[in-house]
Design brief:
This protein is of the alpha/beta class and about 575 residues long. The chain has helices spanning about 15-25, 40-55, 70-80, 90-105, 120-130, 135-150, 155-160, 170-190, 195-205, 210-220, 230-240, 265-270, 270-275, 290-300, 330-345, 365-375, 390-405, 410-420, 435-450, 460-470, 515-530, 560; strands at about 30-35, 60-65, 90, 115, 190, 220-225, 250, 280-285, 285, 310-315, 325-330, 355-360, 380, 480-485, 495-500, 530-540, 570. Mean pLDDT is about 90; it is low at about 1-5 and about 565-579.
């Protein structure tokens, strides 16, 4: 007779053997090497909840850290469901900013300087002061250099010695002058940027024993998600938060390191055991997300790469991965993708379960046109944020106002009445356009009602909406997703169409050295592992830039993605309409 788990052990039910090892390793340094789709978030949230339920952790002494507001919101939601709602789940920047706001008046005096929304304007003023003519794209590149220098923990002199390529037509001396003047202007205006938040927090802990003592007294146990993306600055700040203690759990996958250009260092993950002798190391390689064919494709791409895990598919169902399709040009490729998606929708697939992924934003336009021509709803991920849309702001305000009045009607009726007053209806409007886009946004809010537990009040629902708004935790729209490979990180769909797999796009044209090409390989790996059931690969032989015909070659990675039993030739698909 099997004994039924009770008490805290219930939180371990449903975990596989390795996830359970990770969840039960509550003390000391722990490194979880978690491949794509292996349930890493499940493992770390159950680990934290188990620690709280068993009495090993006081919830207010646990800090879970990640890199995006969305990921932090997801962690908080899962921990709340598991009974560990008192645990703090934040981004590095959010945690550091909260500490700075608390300690700054005590240590420095007065209010913390204001945090810049962006660097462009003040960099423009710096260029004017130096009498340099700098266009907007170059200013964006300079802003990226500011961020890279700071997260890499380099002084201006050290940065100059690295020999980074200079943006635009600027030489190294001009770039250094711009960076220096940018810092001077910030100081004059009592402003700091996001990287300064981490630097100032680290400096305060390092130089003020009283601050260090209070911070370390507050937080004893640290969990860091996506550890392959940690930068030298974040690594240093984490070490200061820890002090002499060793209760640190990190989770990550070196094969998903796609932000090296922004300062991420996967070596901190790969060298964790060397940095923390005696660490518990757990490997999660059971893939619960993708079909065997998708997992096999991903494994072939990463075979033999440093730090790569070998995934084992748990799911039995799913389609085979067809041979990469080649089209005459980008328009033909986009039309073919739209036709395949239309067929999937006709067969009963939901739009929100389908994605088209590409390398650079400029590729979206032709895809938008093709989907629009077929009457297929889509959303471009990374464009305007859902909670910044006027209709969404208006809906939240109206719902909040309604929640202040005493109401005992069912949540569905109350919310639907409010949204109807703003133009929502149970039937979507015909065709595409602004009216349909507005309806899709309001319908997404309506869809959140179905996710609420029984008995949820309107006040609780609007509180959840406001929390989502603060964390940019967007609801799922009933639309096909268009996204760059970078923007797709952390997401998944039943069906994924990977387009533009040609040299110059994947890998991107400016990726020249081994490390840069390897990052492009990892980026493609991320794209492949977003697919649950179906994966389509394609490329086009010609670009469609007016006046500049571009002849392309297939990506060097495609040969590695072919199943051994298949031939070496692409599936050739021609479109008469493309000629």
């Amino acid at each position: 007779m099997t004994e039924t788990a009770t008490g805290p052990d219930v939180l371990l039910d449903g975990l596989d053997a390795q996830q359970r090892v990770a969840a039960e390793a509550l003390f000391g340094p722990v490194c979880i090497l978690a491949g794509a789709g292996t349930g890493k978030t499940r493992a770390i949230t159950h680990r934290i909840a188990y620690g709280v339920a068993s009495g090993a952790y006081a919830p207010n002494r646990v800090m879970a850290l990640t890199f995006t507001n969305r990921a932090a919101a997801e962690l908080r939601g899962r921990l709340r469901q598991l009974g560990a709602g008192g645990v703090s789940a934040r981004t590095f920047h959010s945690a550091a900013l909260a500490q700075l706001n608390y300690f700054w008046p005590q240590v420095v005096g007065g209010q913390l300087p204001s945090v810049l929304d962006g660097k462009g304007r003040i960099l423009g003023h710096a260029a004017e002061r130096l009498k340099l003519r700098v266009d907007t794209p170059t200013l964006r590149d300079i802003a990226a250099e500011v961020e890279w220098r700071k997260v890499s923990s380099l002084s201006l002199e050290q940065y100059a010695a690295v020999g980074r390529p200079t943006p635009g037509q600027l030489n190294t001396e001009q770039v250094i002058d711009l960076l220096r003047t940018y810092e001077e202007l910030k100081d004059e205006r009592r402003q700091i940027d996001f990287e300064d938040v981490l630097l100032a927090c680290a400096g305060m802990i390092e130089s003020e024993p009283g601050v260090a003592m209070q911070v370390r007294e507050q937080y004893r146990f640290f969990v860091v998600d996506e550890y392959q993306d940690v930068s030298p600055l974040q690594h240093d700040l984490l070490a200061l938060w820890l002090g002499t203690r060793t209760d640190l759990c990190v989770v990550g996958d070196a094969s998903q390191t796609i932000y090296s250009f922004a300062g991420a260092r996967s070596q901190y993950l790969l060298d964790f055991e060397r940095e923390h002798p005696g660490a518990t190391v757990v490997r999660l390689e059971q893939n619960y997300r993708s079909s065997p064919a998708v997992v096999d494709t991903a494994n072939r791409l990463m075979r033999g790469r440093s730090g790569a895990l070998t995934l084992h598919a748990v799911r039995a169902e799913g389609d085979t991965v067809p041979e990469p399709a080649v089209y005459e040009d980008d328009r033909a490729e986009a039309r073919a993708v739209a036709e395949r998606i239309a067929a999937e929708l006709d067969a009963g697939a939901r739009p929100q379960d389908i994605a088209v992924l590409y390398r650079v934003n400029v590729q979206a336009a032709v895809l938008e046109q093709a989907l629009g021509d077929r009457g297929i709803s889509y959303q471009v991920r990374g464009s305007r944020r859902f909670f910044d849309l006027p209709e969404v702001r208006q809906a939240i305000m109206s719902l909040r106002g309604a929640s202040l009045a005493a109401q005992e009607e069912p949540l569905f009726k109350t919310v639907s009445d409010v949204l109807r007053s703003l133009g929502w209806s149970t039937r979507p409007p015909e065709g595409r356009g602004a009216v349909r886009d507005r309806w899709e946004s309001l319908n997404a809010i309506m869809g959140l009602v179905d996710e609420q537990p029984p008995g949820t009040t309107l006040r609780r629902f609007t509180d959840d909406l406001l929390a989502r708004q603060a964390g940019q935790h967007e609801p799922t729209l009933s639309a096909v997703t268009l996204a760059t490979l970078h923007a797709a990180k952390g997401l998944e769909w039943d069906s994924v169409h990977l387009v533009g797999l040609s040299e110059g796009l994947v890998p991107i044209s400016y990726a020249t050295g081994f490390d840069q090409i390897d990052e492009e390989r990892r980026l493609l790996y991320v794209g492949i592992t977003r697919a649950r059931r179906r994966l389509h690969l394609s490329w086009a032989e010609r670009g469609i830039t007016p006046g500049r015909p571009v002849t392309r070659r297939p990506s060097r990675f495609l040969e590695e993605l072919r199943a051994p039993a298949r031939g070496a030739r692409d599936t050739r698909t021609r479109s008469a309409a493309s000629s």
